Q: What sequence folds into this?
């Protein structure tokens, strides 16, 4: 349940639903794009690792442009609505373990609504 | 806030985030696919209508396979996690108005976790 839930809404179909942006823009586009930053490979890796970890009620999905291109590669995890910039396999592993297995957060990779550039490493 | 939220999570970036499956499977695949049921055109229509309605904090997104192919065209609206089978422009309009503008539900088009076939019309 959350502020937007209503009495009688069905139970969640997935416990956690991850959307990884794999949108591609033309080369040289001022906003850049997640695909050019390797998001497809990272999504593939995340999907495979989630399976290996036995996260059966977690779905790793591709998505079209999430419109936070400057912050990419971006992903958002629902229903909690937490956004991450995840730029390497090591960071994917960190989000899987800390957020999806343990229910915690990888604070240094999280995106705030007002962010205009990715978190510094 | 919901069961998966944590103190300190940033405010939501979108008020409502809609993911429309546009996955395509090879012709004749036993599960079918949302694209073959017209999901791309319906997503385009939904995006355009949401804009016309001035739903600035609502994002209509494409997604890869949501893995509920038999129930397609499927969409899911977060953070509430409500799933719909939406098969025509009239039904898109209904979900936009009733769910996204008014915060209600289009009960007859909603999917329950155990559903194996789309709601009867």
A:
């Amino acid at each position: 349940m959350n502020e937007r839930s209503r009495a009688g809404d069905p139970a969640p179909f997935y416990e956690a639903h991850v959307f990884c942006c794999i949108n591609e823009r033309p080369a040289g586009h001022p906003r850049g794009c997640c695909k050019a930053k390797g998001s497809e490979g990272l999504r593939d890796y995340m999907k495979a690792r989630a399976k290996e970890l036995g996260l059966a009620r977690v779905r790793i999905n591709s998505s079209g442009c999430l419109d936070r291109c400057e912050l990419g590669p971006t992903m958002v995890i629902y229903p909690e609505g937490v956004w991450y910039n995840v730029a390497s396999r090591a960071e994917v592993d960190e989000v899987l373990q800390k957020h999806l297995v343990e229910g915690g957060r990888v604070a240094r990779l999280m995106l705030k609504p007002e962010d205009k550039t990715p978190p510094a490493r």
About this structure: Chain B touches chain A at residues 1-6, 8-14, 16-17, 19, 22, 59, 61-68, 76, 78-83, 103-105, 110-113 (CB under 8 Å). The mean pLDDT of chain B is 97. The longest strand of chain B covers residues 16-21. Strands of chain B lie at 16-21, 58-63, 74-78, 82-85.
